[in-house]
Structures are given as C-alpha cells and as structure tokens.
Hints:
By secondary structure, the chain is an alpha/beta fold. The protein contains ten helices and 15 strands. The strands form three sheets. A six-stranded mixed sheet has the order 7-8-9-4-10-11, with helices on both faces. Strands 1, 2, 3, 5 and 6 form a five-stranded antiparallel sheet that branches. A four-stranded antiparallel sheet has the order 13-14-12-15, covered by helices on one side.
Amino acid sequence: MNGARVIQTNALSKSYGRVQAVRNLNLAVEANRITGFLGRNGAGKSTTIKMLLGLIRPTEGGGTVLGKQITHREGNRKTRQRVAYVAEDKPLYRYMTVEQMIRFTASFYGDWRPEISRKLLLEYELPPDRKVKTLSKGMRTKLALLLAFSRNPDLLILDEPSEGLDPVMIEHLLQTMVAQAGQGAAVFFSSHQIAEVERIADQVCILDRGCLLLDTSLDRLRESYRRIDLVLPSEAAEHEFRIPGVERIRTNGRQVSVFASGNAEAVIERAHDFHAISVEVAPVGLREIFLETVKEN
C-alpha cells in the first residue's frame, strides 16, 4: 500500500442540530505513516473518527477508509476487519475477566497474533483473572491497547490512546506505535498531548471547532516555520511585514515579532530595508505552531 491513501474524506461534515461538530473536512492520510490528529477537547476529533469507522453517519460529504466508502454498510464491515481501533472511552465488557476479554476479541479476527497478546499481557502487568470492572482507568487503557496491538491490521486508529497511562507506559506505547508503522501499518491517532505527536508523527493535522486548520508533514514544519524577532530604529506599521508566508505579526513600539510558515528570508530582507537594529530568527516547535494556529481560529 505504499503511497496509497488509507483515509480520504471529501467535505465530511457532522451537525447536531445547530452545532457543527465537523465542517467540510478534507483529510488525506497516507499508508506507512504515523499521522497525528491534534486538537483541543471538543475540536471534533472523536466525531471524525467515528464517522470514518461508520459508527455515526455524516450529515454531508463522505470519504473512504482503505478504499471503502464510509457510508456503505457492507463495505464498512469489511473495512473494520482490517482496522484496529481504540476508542476514547475504551469500552470493554465489564463483566468479563481480562483473559475472557482477550479470548473473546481474538475469536473475531483472523490476523490475531497470540504470541504478541501473551507478551503484552506480561509487559502491561495485567491480571488475567481480574474482571474488567475492577480495573483502574490506566489498566483498562492498557487492555484496550493490547487488544489492538495483538492484531496485524492495515490501519491503526487510536483515539487519545495515552489517557490514564503513566510516563513509563506512555513511552512503551509510543515505541509500539512506531514499531507497528515499521511493520507496514498506517497509524492515525488523535491527541491533545502535543509532545507525543511531535515525538513520533510523520504527518500532523490540526483540527479546531470542526475545521481542519493544518495538514502537513512534521519535516516541513521544522524546515519552514520560524519566529523572527526584530528591533527597529523607529516604529513600523504592521502592514509593512505582511508578505507571503507571514501568519502573525505582533508589534510593541519598535519591537516586532513575526510568526512565519515560510519565506523567512524575505522577512529578514524587509527588516534590513528598515535598518533593523537586531534580527533574531528561531525555529518553532509544534506546541507553538499549534497554539498560534488555534488562537487565530
């Protein structure tokens, strides 16, 4: 599936009465990559994922997952056989024991890998004979992850997978996600933990208020985004620095701070035209890019 798109949406939208949870979403997720789906709580990430999996129907628009239409019931059923999904609320059968939950899930999937299941059961320190309803939030998350990682899917969709996990377990989770991608699975995971996305993602999508604000590779973000801080001999009008690639400008007297998604060289050249006293250029991390992007929206 190299180069193929495992997820493709076209103006995908979902409304609940007057509330638009997702608006005209055009999303493209490629195979053999880890795509981070960033957004604040309530941004529409979980709603998008549920539409992709056919758990809720879109109000308008559509899309495909692994080449199958998300609104086609039979095609959607076949798709789910090739997708491992961990939901945000980690739903599990509370009356089952851990071992029963594993055996029950394994019975539905031909790609189940019992050796991986046994390995993760030990690594996650899950008690096989304990009932799900007695597990802590973190242990339920670990069990849900075990059920997903014990399979060999074409696509992993993980909705807030690190919720309730301690730092050691989060590190294990991130390493496992990278390993799954290395074995050929596409990984699409939502999170509001920016550091986790920056650690492992190849592609980053930022969703806010149901709108896709950014969809690009992490490499491009690192190469292109810059903050340029200037001190000028006299006050300059903000519009003087409004050139292609400039996303935000903040001025404070003779101080100008420019946030640019590209074309930093042109900003520096413009600063020299104004005989800038100092010019400082710094790369921008994903956290700052996220905050600036969402703040403007």
